[in-house]
Every structure is written in C-alpha cells, then in structure tokens.
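sorry to bug you again but im stuck and you know this stuff better than me. theres a chain ive been looking at and ive put its sequence and its fold in token form underneath. id like you to explain what the token line says about the fold, in plain words if possible. anything you notice is useful, everything is just below.
___
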Amino acid sequence: MRIVVALGGNALLGDGAGSSAEAGRHEIELAARGLAALAAEHRLIVTHGNGPEVGHLLELALRNALPGQEVVTLHTAVVVAGDDPAPRAIVELRSLRRLIDADALVLCAEGGGVPVAVDHSGAMRGVEAAVDKDLTAALLARRLDADLLMMLTDVRAVQLDWGEASEVELSAATPAELRQHDFEAGSMGTEVEAACRFVETTGRRAAIGSLADAVAMARGEAGTQVAPPSP
C-alpha cells in the first residue's frame, strides 16, 4: 500500500525528551525503526510536526535503519488563504509524485509545511500563518492517492472520556460516529478531523494510534480504524 504517515511530536520525541533534537536522538532512532518495519511492507510518505533539525535526524536514522533505501527530504510549501489553518494545495506535488514513483521514502511538509499565498497572477509569497500539520497530512494523502492515512501518536487509540472512569478506547469508527464527540484541538482533535476528511473524500481508510503499533495498524489490527460505513 501507499501510506501517508503523520508523526505527532510526542511520537518522535516523547514526553520527557525535552525540546531539543539532540535530547530526543534516542527516541528518533526508535521511531525510525518502527517506520522501517512499516516500510518493509509498504511505500511511505512521512510528515511530522517538528522542525528541520528533528527532520534531519529522522532522515539520517531512517537511512541507517533502511540500508539501500533512498530516503529524501523535500521541503514543502502549502498554499493557505487568510486565517484558515487548512492548506489549499501542495506546491511540490509533482516532485513528490516523481520521488514516490522512483521508490523513494519521502519526508515532507515538516511542521505542516511552509505557508505561502498565491495572487491572481500565480505569484507566490511567504506569509505568517499557522498551518495545521494534520490537515496537511490529509491533503497530502488525498492528492497522492494514498491507500491509507496513518496518524501516529503516543497513545494506542482514540479515547472517549479520557481521564475519567468511563474512559474507553475506540477500535473502529466511521467519520460520522467520530463527529458526534468533541475532541480537544490540543489532544486528538486535529488528528480525528484529518482522518475524517480523508475517509469522507476518498472512501478509503485512516488509522490513529501508537507508532509502536504501526505495522498492526496498517493491517487493520490496532489503533482506531476509521472507515466509511458498511454498505
């Protein structure tokens, strides 16, 4: 399968790794091993919510974990409009497709991508905007015809009533079922929204869960599997 993998910050650096990339080197190497196991069975496009320094360390770790596999980082611009955090387009889409067709494992859209605005003549300029990394991942997955969008975090699945006695993990849900609940933007909100948008617009599957369970999630055996309702 062709899979777009969106790595959350805690999935890469963990809660106790600190803010610097060097402090999280060990966690990044562990993440690379998990991605390498997934890459052994699937073609990956990886995006993450961290900055270039972390991205560079992840690229090196993936090269070490996947000897012989071409690993390429493509700095990616996304078109935004006004204060809307959702990207409208991926500027380097053609280049991404060429790299994927050449069997490269591609790292792109770090931190959600570089926001740009496009005027009526097609000219681009950089803008100050907060780009949502998860919505960028959903757009990437749609535009690259991914079979699966995986949102990898540091928790096993989407949880309802988190932290309460009634807490429960969701193993499967439709977008409509997920939209019946309120998920905070700072926790699972944007991951859930991205997964819902991908499933609703493509009819394909998304999964949300732990990086440690990535291989099983791709097989539909772990995490929260988000899919259209059964016919």
